[in-house]
Amino acid sequence: MKVGFTGTRHGMTDEQRRAFIARAKEAGVTEFHYGVCDGADEDAWDVFTSARDLGFERPRTVAHPPSNPAKRLHNTMPFDDEVRPEAEYLTRNRNIVDASETLWAAPDGPEERRSGTWATVRYARRVGKPVVVFWPDGSVTEG
Question: Residues 6 or more apart from 14 whose CB is under 8 A from it?
Answer without folding.
Answer: none
